[in-house]
Amino acid sequence: MPANSSSLLRRGIAAIAALPLLTLAACGYGSESKDDGTTKVAAGAEKTDGLDSVKIGYFGNLTHATALVGVQKGFFQKELGATAVKPAIFNAGPSEIEALNSGSIDIGWIGPSPAINGYTKSNGKSLKIIGGSASGGVKLVVNPAKIKSLKDVKGKKIATPQLGNTQDVAFLNWAADQGWKVDAQSGKGDVTVVRTDNKITPDAYKSGSVDGAWVPEPTASKLVAEGAKVLLDESTLWPDKKFVITNIIVRQEFLKDHPKAVEAVLKAAVETNQWINAHPYEAKAAANKRLEAASGKALPAKVLDPAWKSIQFTDDPLAATLDAEAAHAVKAGLLDKPNLKGIYDLSILNKVLKAAGRPTVDAAGLGTS
Fold it and tell me: Please, are residues 116 and 338 in contact by the beta-carbon 8 Å criterion?
């Protein structure tokens, strides 16, 4: 990519991240909606850190099931006592980062690319990654009539959710590894990248506007339900088939002022992941119920079941893979080489894990000193 195009792209992404939340919603980059119906505060419970509420953000994706299940089953509310959980649903990373920066949320579940962008654009001042949540759950799904092998992807139109988002970076990196040239800004080249909101990707596939998509769950399984075929599971490209898809982030000011509240949320997240892994069927149903409460529509079994199987829930932030994903964004021309030293603060998480008799986790050299 020419240097001036790369510079324009980076400025464009920075401008998107700086847009107000309502503007982002209007442009289709993301939206926020309050998610009511949470577990009621127990009688006699005390407030945590003197707070009336803790505002938690996440996506309506199964890759954010720690948050979905934690809210639905009351794990967060139990740990926060009389401090009410206030959840908010987002459609995309930039809008959630904007909400975090403005104080509209305190803690969020989010993918690696927006976490990296939020950290680097604030010169390391806006957020910290304080825990892991999920690995996997991303697939390349294609029209089997048009694409029968990986080499057939060349010359086709492949959807990704958003310019510079986690899946967009992953697909561009994979395409480059095939020896194909793609202009990251325009999406044109040996394969055409079509940035399409996950909500409309199934319709784009049905209409023939795209020949496939590199997308997270449950979008991948929605496409399969429309006749698409899974051509590649992204987990097969990573060591031990593990890579970070969802992190837990916190506003640094909130972390400094309310460490007990952060600890309560992390304790609830660890408890939720443990419960998910011990009760997969019940957890899957709980996540789906929370999705239904947020969107008014539950996922059918033919979408929910295969989607759930491809996701691993983990407290480990898999920090080495975040560093690799940042390198992929740099290679694609979507990001200047970032200084990620200090992006993680895993001290509270490791305190929680030790207390639970669980192994501690590592920041791969990117932790707070």
Answer: yes
